[in-house]
Amino acid sequence: MPRDGGSTREHLLDAAERLVERNGFAATSVEMILSEAGSSKGAFFHHFTSKRALAHALVERYVTADLGTLAAGLQAASAEREPKARLLRFLDHFVDRSAALTSESACLYIAVLVEQDLLDEQNSAQVERAILGWRESVAALMQAAFTAAPTTRPRPAPEDLADQLFAVIEGAFLMCRAAGSPEPMRRQLLVYRQLVAALF
User: What is the pLDDT of residue 6?
Assistant: First the structure.
C-alpha cells in the first residue's frame, strides 16, 4: 500500500474509478473502495470528507486527464505546418491510439450523466469543462484548415464538427463496452476522419 498521503489518495481514486466504471456510483460503497484499495476508513476520511467529496475528486481528475489526452493530440499535430495536414494529423493521432484510449479507461462521463447520485452542479460543471475544452481546441483546428482551403460547397460549423468528435469518442466507448473490444473506437474514429477529409 502506498505510504505517502498523495499516493494513498490516488490509490483510493484508482480503486473508486474501477468500481464505479464496473458497478456504477450508487452501487459502489466506501467499504468496497477500501477493500479494492487495501486501505483503511481512517485513510479514506483523511482525504475525503464524504463519498460525495470523493465523487467530485474523481470526476475532476478524469476531466483533467481527458483534457491531457486532447493536449497530447494537439502536440502531435503541431509538427505539421499546413493547417489541413495539422487537422488530419490530429485525427490520425486518435485513430492510431484508439486501442489505448479504451484500455486506459472506460468512460466516467456516462456514469456521471446517467446516475442521479453523481449528477450535481459541481460534477456537471466539470463535464462541461471537458466539452468546452474539446470544442474550442478542435474548432480552432477546423477553422484554420477551412480558412486555408476555401470552397464554395457548404461545410458544417467548426464547433459542430468539434462536438461531433466528442460525441463519436464517447459513443464509441459504449460500443466498445458492449462488444468487449476496442475495435469500434478505431472504426468510428476512422470514419470521422474520412468524413472530415472529404470536406476538402
Answer: 59
Number of compact structural domains in the chain: 2
Provide the domain limits for residue 29.
Answer: 1-48
Let me know if 178 is exposed, middle or buried by CB neighbors in 10 A (0-12, 13-18, 19+).
exposed
Rounded Cα distance between 188 and 150, Å, is 26
Handedness of CA 43, 45, 47, 48 (dihedral sign): positive
End-to-end CA distance of the chain: 54
153 and 168 co-located in one domain: yes
Same-domain check for residues 72 and 15: no
What is the tens place of the pLDDT at every residue in 79-132? 999 999 999 999 999 999 998 888 766 677 877 777 777 778 898 899 999 999
113 in Cβ contact with 123 (< 8 Å): no
My answer on whether 34 and 56 are in the same domain is: no
CATH code: domain of residue 117 = 1.10.357.10
105 plus 194 within the same structural domain: yes
Beta carbons of 115 and 25 less than 8 angstroms apart = yes
pLDDT tens digits, one per residue of 152-194: 999 999 999 999 999 999 899 889 988 889 999 999 999 999 9
Does the pLDDT value for residue 4 go beyond 50? no
Chain centre distance of CA 1: 28
Tell me the backbone φ, ψ of residue 48, rounded to 5 degrees: -135, 130
